[in-house]
Amino acid sequence: MHLSQAAKKAEIIVDQVSMRFGKKGHEVTALQNVSFKIYRNEFVSLLGPSGCGKSTLLRLMADLLEPTEGQIMIQDEHPREVRLRRKFGIVFQNPTLFEWRTVKQNIELPLEVLGQKKSQYSALTEQLIEMVGLSSFKHYYPWQLSGGMQQRVAIARALSLDPPILLMDEPFSALDEFTKEKLQLELLEIKRKTNKTIVFVTHSIPEAVYLSDRIIVLSAHPGRVHSIVDNVREEGDPSHIRESERFHEMMKTVRNCFYEESGFLDGQTI
Amino acid sequence: MTGRLFKKFGQNGTFVLWAAAILLLWEAGAWFIEDIAQLTAPASKLPYIHRVLSSLVEHFPTMIKQGAVTFGNSITGFVIGSAIGFALAILMSLSRTVENTLSPYMIASQMIPIIGLAPIIYGIIHDAALSRVLMAGYVTFFPVTINALRGIKSIKQEQLELMRSYAASTWTLYLKLKLKSALPGLFAGLKLSAPLAITASIIVELMGAPDGIGVLMVSSLYYGTAQVYMFWSTVLISMAIGLLLYLIITLLERWMTPWQPEFRSKGRDET
Ligand SMILES: Nc1ncnc2c1ncn2[C@@H]1O[C@H](COP(=O)(O)OP(=O)(O)OP(=O)(O)O)[C@@H](O)[C@H]1O
Ligand SMILES: [Mg+2]
């Protein structure tokens, strides 16, 4: 992480992106002039209050929406090209599993859609199931699993095509504190093993500080980039990060973005 | 395991108890009408159930033969109607324009009373079997379309986005997501239209068809009190036919949509 930014390869470039919803005259501006870069193998969090356009931004990167203005480039291509070549995996806030599929079948869904043969990927799915710790549940249906287990299935499913980019929209926000910390640790482990570029949406400051290399802080109404916090994560044993001096320093820094610096909440009516 | 068996027996036991109670009440009612109040033509009001049953046994071969004719045609119409209904649901889910174009006609078609339509159809084609099939199909397709379409439309946005992120073709999207989501609605529609399909066939028979359980119904009505037990037997047979169709659908539903909440205790995939 000590390379100069110029030396790093920009994976995702968001350039002057604005997004408005609704008909002319009744428009809602979700994002206004948003620009930033995300580098290869980086873990970047999009942090901001509810309604600031984090999900919208992620959907734009995933080519699930078209920006009203500006453009997004991923690996020097339009997001559509990237989507058509299945270069990213998505995890939503809700696990979004298919009720009629077992754990294993849910994880295999992307591979089936790709048209691969079962014999080609069965070893891979076993490995993924192992990785998210659901070996003894692989023939269970979603309704037989806890929320945390379902979210792990969703993560394994996003990894099944081994995409270089992982887009995650508040994947842990519906979970209890214990499950959340466990999955955060697992996510860092996955990141360490696979070295993917991860874009992680969250509205939790500790979560963003714990996980990210960089945090892009967004402000609301309309959504804009408020500031970008660099060099967030320190190297070292992730299970002790939370106790470190540096973690608390970083928390303070990020928190200050919200509360002190420029009257972040001034524009909002609560 | 034994606990579950016991519970199952308990449920069936309750059902048997209720059925026995209703039959007893029926007999008591019939006894009151015929022997206590001594009303005229008591059997037309509420006949003794044991006499109805003995008449049913006596005429059983005829009943079964005519019942089979009705059932066969109803089922044919029902299957064709469901297939068309399901196809319409898929067509309407493909495009809003198609949906908006078709739905007024579909709704209007359901405003025609079948009791009025049956003689028209029978008058035109003059073939009892074909009329029954047509009428059964006619009443079947609408509930199937409406319910299956609702199932497809209830798919969550994230599920669609997920498939889109895999760059799934329309064909794959339907195969892996939309058709599956339509199944619970399809079965809800089938359950609604199964009794309708049988009634529709019987109505054709009442309009002068040469065979079928409905014909037995009308002819036993003509003979007044003499055939009143026969008449009640035909009603029982029609009920049995309806129940049989319903049962088949329920079994199919259990087999094809085991993930639905009401089947969940058995939903485990053991492969
Ligand atoms: N499909 C849509 N149609 C109309 N408006 C939308 C749509 N999607 C989002 N918006 C609007 O855009 C704004 C940003 O929404 P978005 O879901 O991106 O926020 P968010 O930051 O993800 O919030 P949260 O943390 O609550 O998930 C909101 O004001 C919302 O009302
Ligand atoms: Mg959101």
TrEMBL record, chain A:
<protein>
    <submittedName>
        <fullName>NitT/TauT family transport system ATP-binding protein</fullName>
    </submittedName>
</protein>
<keyword id="KW-0813">Transport</keyword>
<dbReference type="InterPro" id="IPR003439">
    <property type="entry name" value="ABC_transporter-like_ATP-bd"/>
</dbReference>
<dbReference type="GO" id="GO:0005524">
    <property type="term" value="F:ATP binding"/>
</dbReference>
<dbReference type="GO" id="GO:0016887">
    <property type="term" value="F:ATP hydrolysis activity"/>
</dbReference>
<feature type="domain" description="ABC transporter">
    <location>
        <begin position="12"/>
        <end position="245"/>
    </location>
</feature>
<dbReference type="Pfam" id="PF00005">
    <property type="entry name" value="ABC_tran"/>
</dbReference>
<dbReference type="InterPro" id="IPR050166">
    <property type="entry name" value="ABC_transporter_ATP-bind"/>
</dbReference>
<dbReference type="InterPro" id="IPR017871">
    <property type="entry name" value="ABC_transporter-like_CS"/>
</dbReference>
<dbReference type="InterPro" id="IPR003593">
    <property type="entry name" value="AAA+_ATPase"/>
</dbReference>
<keyword id="KW-0067">ATP-binding</keyword>
<keyword id="KW-0547">Nucleotide-binding</keyword>
<dbReference type="InterPro" id="IPR027417">
    <property type="entry name" value="P-loop_NTPase"/>
</dbReference>
From TrEMBL, chain B:
<keyword id="KW-0812">Transmembrane</keyword>
<keyword id="KW-0813">Transport</keyword>
<feature type="transmembrane region" description="Helical">
    <location>
        <begin position="229"/>
        <end position="252"/>
    </location>
</feature>
<dbReference type="InterPro" id="IPR035906">
    <property type="entry name" value="MetI-like_sf"/>
</dbReference>
<protein>
    <submittedName>
        <fullName>NitT/TauT family transport system permease protein</fullName>
    </submittedName>
</protein>
<comment type="similarity">
    <text>Belongs to the binding-protein-dependent transport system permease family.</text>
</comment>
<dbReference type="Pfam" id="PF00528">
    <property type="entry name" value="BPD_transp_1"/>
</dbReference>
<keyword id="KW-1133">Transmembrane helix</keyword>
<feature type="transmembrane region" description="Helical">
    <location>
        <begin position="75"/>
        <end position="94"/>
    </location>
</feature>
<feature type="domain" description="ABC transmembrane type-1">
    <location>
        <begin position="67"/>
        <end position="253"/>
    </location>
</feature>
<feature type="transmembrane region" description="Helical">
    <location>
        <begin position="106"/>
        <end position="125"/>
    </location>
</feature>
<dbReference type="InterPro" id="IPR000515">
    <property type="entry name" value="MetI-like"/>
</dbReference>
<keyword id="KW-0472">Membrane</keyword>
<dbReference type="GO" id="GO:0055085">
    <property type="term" value="P:transmembrane transport"/>
</dbReference>
<keyword id="KW-1003">Cell membrane</keyword>
<feature type="transmembrane region" description="Helical">
    <location>
        <begin position="186"/>
        <end position="209"/>
    </location>
</feature>
<dbReference type="GO" id="GO:0005886">
    <property type="term" value="C:plasma membrane"/>
</dbReference>
